[in-house]
């Protein structure tokens, strides 16, 4: 099936600011009118990092939020591409291709649970805004990170009304001492109409295992935003394969056009678990 | 006032004439259906499809791509829906396109290539065939590309079952590419595409393991342009049939180098991933 790229366009925008959110988390705010007008929650943009040939490939970033003609992106300077982005100054050009990808199913009734791990916070402000426009106010965010300074600030998940945010840190420096998945049982007791998850693939795997082990009825909408090393972002290079289950067998789906958001029961978690971790340089 | 340089059609033989010399390289444009939505694909000279095999192939396990200095490694493993789906479901969607669609064929045996060519023979939307004898990412993918005798035998066998223009895409992973080029010309190839990707490897430095699960992959991108240029120059000196230069083109200047050494046309590959409009920009830059 060919991806619908009808909204995607190349766009030369402008940096407004790169701000630190603490703990290494950064927020790029850019004037990108086309992306701001056409992106949907869970979709992403392929951003060029520098104008040279190294790094060569664009980098995919979830659209964290939109406001008028601007978009926000949350990232961390971990590799050559994101280090270049972290150095953008106000007025510097931002080269975007987007919006791309299959986003979240925005439900119109709650309760809703959002599970965020580390940089997995990125798509949630946009999603939560859309949920509110659909009349959903009963939203709980489970937000986990290694340590307190790396928690996406709770007030940034929704403005002006901040959703309920339950926090977990692996080192116990804030909120629950442990993993974000420890918070799932309480959240599931509300029998959510939708559960959305975003974070490292290993965290998403843990979310799914916890859900299955809980014995609770799975939310009717159960979606995760996944990640994979990506070449083009628009379905031609076939580089960003993710294992999925289809008719009882394993197939490769593309993170860029079949995803990045996929129904969690369609992901082949056992296969995904066996894959090597990301190569970041 | 400078005279406008008009892009001239490129005659490849057997009735195939490209409207202009700038095409999209196999493996970087799918079957055209994604790029059709992003760029004015019909202004380009040719679309070389994803490598297509007799049976559908699911492709290699991930990670399938790894970035390197000025380039990228890929190990896609010829993921494709199989020749029957391409002939039955995809080709009708090319009806009405003015861009010639040239189907890239891959296989593990002469019989597989011959079967694919045979299936495409009655399909009017197929403008030509590009024989991929140079895929580094499947077992045996390079067997024909490294052996001039085997390459010649393959080309002759496909030649016997098709009236279509047969283009052969050569591997640069050989000692002397000119020998293979002459062998496929002698066997009846109408044109040559050169080159496919270079075998490369990247190490995951935290673990000491190769990033790509099969160890190696195919290197493409601007890093290979001078290597590809040397190979294409050697091929152009060795044969009389038209040569299509491909490898690391990012702009009109790097494309023009291939025309300078004797290529009749070019293909833009990996640069399309970075900027889908690259091929159109190359065309506009070469023929302003």
What does the secondary structure layout of this molecule look like, with pairings?
The complex is a heterodimer of chains A (281) and B (288).
Chain A: E1 9-22, E2 25-31, H1 33-38, E3 44-47, E4 59-62, E5 65-67, E6 70-76, H2 80-86, E7 93-100, E8 112-117, H3 124-133, E9 139-145, E10 164-169, E11 176-177, H4 184-188, E12 194-198, H5 201-214, E13 221-225, E14 241-246, E15 249-254, E16 261-263, H6 269-274
Parallel strand pairs in A: 8-9, 8-12, 9-10, 10-11, 12-13
Antiparallel strand pairs in A: 1-2, 1-7, 2-6, 3-4, 3-7, 5-6, 13-16, 14-15
Chain B: E1 10-13, E2 16-18, E3 22-24, H1 35-38, E4 46-48, E5 65-68, E6 71-74, H2 83-90, E7 101-105, H3 110-120, E8 126-132, H4 143-146, H5 148-159, E9 165-170, H6 177-186, E10 191-194, E11 198-201, E12 203-204, E13 209-210, E14 216-220, H7 225-238, E15 243-246, H8 252-260, E16 265-268, H9 271-274, H10 278-286
Parallel strand pairs in B: 3-4, 3-16, 4-7, 7-8, 8-9, 9-10, 10-15, 15-16
Antiparallel strand pairs in B: 1-2, 5-6, 6-14, 11-14, 12-13
Helix pairs in contact in B: 3-5, 5-6, 6-7, 8-10
Write structural notes for this entry.
In chain A, helix 3 links the parallel strand 8 and strand 9. Chain A folds into 2 domains: 9-100, Translation factors (Elongation Factor Tu (Ef-tu), domain 3, Beta Barrel); 112-274, 3-Layer(aba) Sandwich (Rossmann fold), CATH 3.40.50.80. The two termini of chain A are 33 Å apart. Chain A has helices spanning 33-38, 80-86, 124-133, 184-188, 201-214, 269-274; strands at 9-22, 25-31, 44-47, 59-62, 65-67, 70-76, 93-100, 112-117, 139-145, 164-169, 176-177, 194-198, 221-225, 241-246, 249-254, 261-263. With 281 residues, chain A is of the alpha/beta class. Helices cover 17% and strands 33% of the residues of chain A. Chain B is α/β, with parallel strands linked by helices and 288 residues long. Chain B has a single domain, classed as TIM Barrel, CATH 3.20.20. Chain B is built from 10 helices and 16 strands. In chain B, the strands form 4 sheets. Chain B has an 8-stranded parallel barrel, surrounded by 6 helices. Chain B starts with 9 loop residues before the first strand and ends with a helix. The interface between A and B is large, with 39 and 45 residues.
């Amino acid at each position: 099936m060919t991806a619908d790229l009808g909204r995607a366009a190349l766009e030369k925008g402008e940096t407004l600011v790169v701000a630190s959110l603490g703990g290494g988390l950064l927020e790029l705010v850019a004037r990108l009118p086309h992306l701001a007008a056409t992106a949907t929650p869970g979709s992403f943009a392929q951003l060029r990092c520098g104008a040279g040939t190294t790094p060569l490939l664009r980098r995919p970033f979830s659209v964290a939020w939109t406001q008028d003609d601007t978009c926000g992106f949350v990232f961390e300077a971990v590799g050559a591409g994101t280090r270049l982005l972290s150095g953008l100054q106000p007025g510097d050009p931002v080269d975007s291709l987007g919006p791309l990808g299959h986003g979240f199913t925005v439900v119109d009734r709650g309760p809703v649970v959002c599970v965020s791990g580390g940089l997995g916070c990125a798509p949630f402000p946009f999603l939560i805004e859309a949920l509110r426009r659909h009349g959903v106010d009963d939203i709980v965010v489970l937000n986990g990170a290694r340590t307190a300074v790396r928690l996406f600030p709770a007030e940034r998940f929704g403005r002006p009304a901040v959703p309920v945010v339950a926090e977990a840190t692996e080192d116990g420096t804030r909120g629950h001492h442990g993993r974000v998945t420890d918070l799932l049982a309480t959240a599931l007791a509300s029998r959510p109409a939708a559960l959305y998850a975003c974070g490292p693939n290993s965290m998403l795997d843990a979310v799914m295992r916890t859900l299955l082990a809980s014995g609770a009825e799975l939310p009717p909408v159960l979606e995760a935003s996944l990640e994979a090393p990506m070449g083009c972002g628009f379905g031609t290079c076939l580089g960003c394969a993710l294992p999925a289950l289809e008719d009882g067998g394993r197939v490769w789906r593309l993170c860029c056009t079949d995803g990045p958001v996929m129904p969690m029961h369609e992901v082949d978690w056992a296969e995904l678990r066996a894959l090597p971790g990301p190569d970041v340089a | 006032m400078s005279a406008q340089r008009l892009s001239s059609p490129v005659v490849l033989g057997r009735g195939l004439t490209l409207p202009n010399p700038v095409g999209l390289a196999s493996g970087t444009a799918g079957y055209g259906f994604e790029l059709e939505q992003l760029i004015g694909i019909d202004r380009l000279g040719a679309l070389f499809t994803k490598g297509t095999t007799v049976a559908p192939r699911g492709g290699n396990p991930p990670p399938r791509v790894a970035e390197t200095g000025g380039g990228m490694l890929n190990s896609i493993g010829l993921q494709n829906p199989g020749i029957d789906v391409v002939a039955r479901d995809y080709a009708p969607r090319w009806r009405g396109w003015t861009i010639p669609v040239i189907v890239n064929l891959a296989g593990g045996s002469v019989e597989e290539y011959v079967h694919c060519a045979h299936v495409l023979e009655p399909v009017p939307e197929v403008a030509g065939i590009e024989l991929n004898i140079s895929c580094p990412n499947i077992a045996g993918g390079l067997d024909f590309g490294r052996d001039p005798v085997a390459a010649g035998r393959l080309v002759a066998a496909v030649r016997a079952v098709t009236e279509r223009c047969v283009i052969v895409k050569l591997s640069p992973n050989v000692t002397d590419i000119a020998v293979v080029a002459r062998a496929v010309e002698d066997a009846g190839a109408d044109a040559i595409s050169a080159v496919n990707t270079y075998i490369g490897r990247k190490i995951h430095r935290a673990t000491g393991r190769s990033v790509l699960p099969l160890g190696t992959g195919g290197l493409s991108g601007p890093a290979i342009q001078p290597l590809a240029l040397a190979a294409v120059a050697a091929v152009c000196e060795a044969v009389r049939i038209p040569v299509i230069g491909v490898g690391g083109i990012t702009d009109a200047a790097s494309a023009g180098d291939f025309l300078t050494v004797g290529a009749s046309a070019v293909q833009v590959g990996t640069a399309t991933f970075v900027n889908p409009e690259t091929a159109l920009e190359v065309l506009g830059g070469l023929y302003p």
